[in-house]
Amino acid sequence: MSATIIDGKVRAEALRNTVADEVARFRAAHGTVPGLAVVLVGEDPASQTYVASKAKQTVEAGMRSFEHRLPADTAESEVIALVEALGRDDAVDGILVQLPVPRHIDAGRVIAAIDPLKDVDGLTEVNAGRLAAGRPGLRPCTPYGSMMMLDWVGRPLAGLDAVVVGRSELVGRPMAQLLLMANCTVTIAHSKTRDLAGVCRRADILVAAVGRPKMIPGDWVKPGATVIDVGINRVPAPEKGEGKTRLVGDVDFDTAKGVAGAITPVPGGVGLMTVATLLANTLIAAHLRRGLTPPAFFADLDARLFGR
């Protein structure tokens, strides 16, 4: 048995094309295009790369990109003031603060300053509360993108056992809530879970989001399960030369792919889908801010995923 590879590149490209088509319709109907503002504090190399990629893809989708790169020693009050100003800027439909921020800045206070209608990462208390209540709203990009990948697999989700390994506010908890909305039976596992291997082995859907390279081996995977690997870990790659690294997931892909029914690779999986979902959320926010109904594509997607 060899798993179907859930190709994030193909899925993300399809979503970006859908967003670009809808942005063109939005421009024709309203004479403007959605705008996404990204705030980056500091010079973290990975964050710099992510922000550049987001800006490039935003423009390619026909939207406006506003980049705000601040020095690492920027005061917390200045970051909050910028976020609040972006909330008042009518050209901006989505605001994303790139995490992590430097240690002297309280990320919670910065996120709290984001206008919930522009919170395209779904992290404010308003949007987190809507998600917890099963109500429509802006959803965190990585979990929502992961749900789209599950939709692509084509297996009905209702009634399946889902295990989410990781309980972060960014991925683990919202992922579990979306799976609940899809009528799965959900378990959240974490570092203190007893018999973690046994918990994973009963999962029809296994989502790994712990940030530990290859933590989940193939013999923890139920035969035929769908595996969504959210982890992006950089590890030494001596075969490439001294000091070289490579990316791996939280799942040992080489052993898991022979057991799973479908699996996302790292790289080339959830990470690509996350950025495409950010663009989709910006488009949705542009509609909601104006009292408009989001494009039918998203209503149809929600009906398939969360229809009762």
Descriptive terms for the model:
Rossmann fold, alpha/beta, 308 residues, 16% strand, three-stranded parallel beta sheet, six-stranded parallel beta sheet, 2 domains, 11 strands
What can you tell me about this protein's structure?
There is one protein chain. Helices cover 42% and strands 16% of the residues. It folds into two domains: 31-116, Rossmann fold (3-Layer(aba) Sandwich); 141-271, Rossmann fold, CATH 3.40.50. Helix 6 packs across helix 7 (172-181). It starts with a strand and ends with a helix. Strands 1-11-8-7-5-6 form a six-stranded parallel sheet. The chain is of the alpha/beta class. The protein is built from eleven helices and eleven strands. A hairpin with an 8-residue loop joins strand 9 and strand 10.
